[in-house]
């Protein structure tokens, strides 16, 4: 069965590279997407991918295995494709590959102690979901007043970056601003999908689309497709196959819609924004910090607490972005920025423990797949955001708290029959 898994994964990687050559490179060469292929590196990139599949466990029913496979699809495969199509650094690519091997080994052999769950007598998971729903509605009203509601520039791809720069909010409201589309609404989307509450699911979808129309963040639009699409295929017994079908279909649909409309938005949203840009920026960060002083957490909350001064006059992500663009990167590249390979390995350990923690939260659940669905958007966020930023600003810690409550108040309302799609 692994031969079919390998074939489908290689098929997606090949499709991504074909789309890159014919659509991304030709339209975005000005943004640093080049075509400078190194075919020996191509062999290396495919070899690593096959090795990962062979090392992974055959059981894809656990959230940790499902989430890590998703991470391979959105992080390693685009990175490995960029590696050989742009003749990028072998040093960095081997570092990332070593981190992935470490994560696989930890997932195979690491065992966490059982979590002690609180026995809530009066509080039900339904009460928590209703609290999230009401809180989200209230916050959307607040941010509508602050931002002025829907901005028509969100409908114009060329204007969304201007809109995004104007919708930045700091302080406590800034945290809530990030938690709405990254924690609260995704929790509602997943819950209502598995509960089959179509009206409330429609409201949650509207909330996320509305948030995009206010802010211009394209990833919020993609999150709806990702969360609901993966929630649907999680019903299948062969998640690993349907994940390949899902991402391959998104690439093909993006190309078809572009060919029909000639609107670059369909290429820009997927694959460019979600796959190509994070891999490109990951190598850009390595190239910069391999020859310049590392940050050692000077730009994070740790640096603020310990009074560690940054070696740069402006935030390093703006330096890498050419002064005008905030070029954030994923948690592995961010780890290299702050502490090199050693920190990359430490972050990989933390990531593996996080995945195992989701397994522990889902233990005893009537449907462990819902815990996978709750976390999928955070896996995407980790592809272009640092670990500490994801934990605090993006709300990963808040999400884990909610999942702990859900786990402690587990009920049969999430039970459904797993079936092949």
DSSP E strands, number? 0
What share of the residues lie within helices?
Answer: over 70%
Overall spatial form: globular
N- to C-terminal separation? Answer: 18 Å
Model regions low in confidence, pLDDT < 50 over at least 5 residues: 411-421
Tally of separate domains: 2
Characterize the main sheet: none
What is the chain-wise order of helices and strands?
HHHHHHHHHHHHHHHHH
Mean pLDDT: 92
The secondary-structure class comes to mainly alpha
Number of helices: 17
Radius of gyration: 21 Å
* Beta-strand percent range: under 5%
Word description of this protein:
With 421 residues, the chain is mostly helical. The protein has two domains: 2-111 and 223-294 and 326-414, no CATH class; 135-171 and 183-216, no CATH class. It has helices at residues 2-28, 39-55, 63-85, 90-109, 125-147, 160-166, 171-195, 198-215, 218-233, 239-261, 265-289, 301-306, 316-320, 331-362, 369-381, 387-392, 396-408. The longest helix is centred in the last third of the chain and has 32 residues, at 331-362.
């Amino acid at each position: 069965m692994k031969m079919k898994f390998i074939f489908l994964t290689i098929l997606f990687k090949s499709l991504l590279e074909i789309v890159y050559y014919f659509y991304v490179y030709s339209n975005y060469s000005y943004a640093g997407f080049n075509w400078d292929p190194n075919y020996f590196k191509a062999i290396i990139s495919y070899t690593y991918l096959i090795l990962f599949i062979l090392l992974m466990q055959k059981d894809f029913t656990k959230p940790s295995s499902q989430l890590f496979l998703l991470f391979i699809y959105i992080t390693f495969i685009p990175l490995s494709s960029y590696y050989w199509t742009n003749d990028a650094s072998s040093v960095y690519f081997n570092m990332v590959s070593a981190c992935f091997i470490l994560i696989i080994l930890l997932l195979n052999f690491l065992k966490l102690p059982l979590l002690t769950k609180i026995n809530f007598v009066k509080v039900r998971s339904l009460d928590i979901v209703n609290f999230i729903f009401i809180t989200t509605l209230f916050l959307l009203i607040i941010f509508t007043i602050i931002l002025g509601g829907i901005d028509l520039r969100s409908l114009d791809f060329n204007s969304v970056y201007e809109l995004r720069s104007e919708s930045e909010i700091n302080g406590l409201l800034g945290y809530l601003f990030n938690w709405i589309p990254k924690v609260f609404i995704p929790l509602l989307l997943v819950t209502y999908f598995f509960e089959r509450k179509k009206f409330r699911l429609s409201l949650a979808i509207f909330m996320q689309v509305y948030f995009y129309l206010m802010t211009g963040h394209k990833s919020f639009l993609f999150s709806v497709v990702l969360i609901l699409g993966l929630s649907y295929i999680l019903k299948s017994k062969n998640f690993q196959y349907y994940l390949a079908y899902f991402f391959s279909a998104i690439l093909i649909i993006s190309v078809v819609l572009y060919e029909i409309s000639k609107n670059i938005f369909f290429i820009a949203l997927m694959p460019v924004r979600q796959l190509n840009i994070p891999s490109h920026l990951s190598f850009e960060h390595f190239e910069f910090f391999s020859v310049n002083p590392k940050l050692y957490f000077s730009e994070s909350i740790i640096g603020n607490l310990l009074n560690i001064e940054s070696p740069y006059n402006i935030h390093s992500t703006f330096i890498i972005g050419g002064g005008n663009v905030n070029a954030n990167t994923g948690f592995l590249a961010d780890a290299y920025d702050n502490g090199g390979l050693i920190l990359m390995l430490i972050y990989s350990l933390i990531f593996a423990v996080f995945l195992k923690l989701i397994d522990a939260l889902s233990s005893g659940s009537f449907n462990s797949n819902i815990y996978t669905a709750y976390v999928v958007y955070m896996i995407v966020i980790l592809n272009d955001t640092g670990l500490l930023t994801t934990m605090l600003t993006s709300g990963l810690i808040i999400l884990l708290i909610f999942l702990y409550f859900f786990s402690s108040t587990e009920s049969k309302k999430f039970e459904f029959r797993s079936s092949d799609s």
